[in-house]
Amino acid sequence: MTKCKLEYIWLDGYQPTQSLRSKTMVVEDFSGKVEDAKMWAFDGSSTEQAPGGSSDCLLQPVFACPDPGRIGGNSYLIMCEVLDSEGNPHRTNGRATIKDKDDDFWFGFEQEYTIWNPDLNKPIGFPVEGFPGPQGPYYCSVGHGKAVGREIVEKHLQMCLDAGLNVEGINAEVMMGQWEFQIFAKGAQRAGDEIWIARYLLERVAEEYEMSINWHCKPVQGDWNGSGMHANFSNTTLRTCGSQEVYETICKAFEPRIKHHIDVYGADNDQRLTGLHETQSIDKFSYGVSDRGASIRIPITTVKNGWKGWLEDRRPASNADPYMVASAIITTVKSATVPASA
After folding, report:
1. Mean predicted lDDT score pLDDT of the chain
2. What is this structure's pTM?
3. CA torsion 289→303→320→295, rounded to 10°?
4. How far apart are CA 164 and CA 289, in angstroms?
5. Are residues 182 and 320 in the same domain?
């Protein structure tokens, strides 16, 4: 018999931004398959998810992968949905709101974040007093004093790959200490699962370096880019229609639903969506080909491929729940009245 460590991971009930929680179950001879992971429970009164007099919440495993960072091997990460004591989706369960049972929707999330020095309460690389030089040389940079925190980023990337996550790239971002990773999945729930597992692994790597990860969308006020989680998405229609008219119809479906999206696109997003720093204003909507100042960008690749491809919603913040972002996008796309010829 082989003892295996299963790390059950879930989202708590803190508002306006949920946090990751986890605890370990030790079992014998786990297969590595999510269907063989048992349902578990936790004290919801300690996570803002239940009252003390009726505190049990349930953990329903939905995604499993190897845990490459744990000593001794035979370890797995188990992403879970939270259910109430009667087995219904908890009010904090964003994953359960996704209406994409056939995985027709594909998502690629560009997750930005800032490596944070807790001793200085500043991004890694920032001086004790004042600020570094203005942004410009840090994006996709290399070299001392520009690409700061690379050892954390590289270790995180390798851990994600060893876990089997579909990370498609990383890069240094516009502000010093700010980085990004990209994850793609066929299926909205799977994309959300992998983003949350990748976030969990990043937090664990940062622990080793006595750093933290700041997910806030505007961690440093002033003339610095905020942090986003751009959502690239497609369904069969977008991938195959070959029609500019269809693309514009779908884009226009987002315009009357600004509040519906902004409500789930992350806390304090008004600090980031100002109309500056490659953003549209939070209360406005626009779309355009290759326009990084628009709410929805139509990639030039999509146009050159004969209007077959995907769209990018540039509004989600770095601290948004990818489940809720995907859910809102799917609802809006499905609401569009696509021309019958498509």
Report:
1. 96
2. 0.96
3. 20
4. 33
5. yes
pLDDT tens digits for range 220-248: 999 999 999 999 999 999 999 999 999 99
State residue 153 phi and psi, 5-degree precision. -65, -45
Kindly state whether residues 179 and 73 are assigned to the same domain: no
Residue range of the domain that includes 40:
3-93
Burial of 119 (0-12, 13-18, 19+ CB in 10 A): exposed
**CB of 200 closer than 8 Å to CB of 210:** no
Are 89 and 80 in contact, with CB atoms under 8 Å apart?
A: no
* Residue 244: how many other CB atoms lie within 10 Å: 14
**Which tokens is 14 given?**
């803190």
Per the structure, the count of domains in the chain is 2
Three-point CA angle 17, 23, 29, nearest 5°? 135
Does 340 fall in a domain? no
Side chain identity, residue 287? Y
Instruction: Look at residues 72, 93, 114 and tell me which one is the last residue of a structural domain.
Output: 93
Q: Domain of 26: which CATH number?
A: 3.10.20.70
Rounded to the nearest 5 percent, the helix, strand and coil shares of the chain are: 25, 25, 45
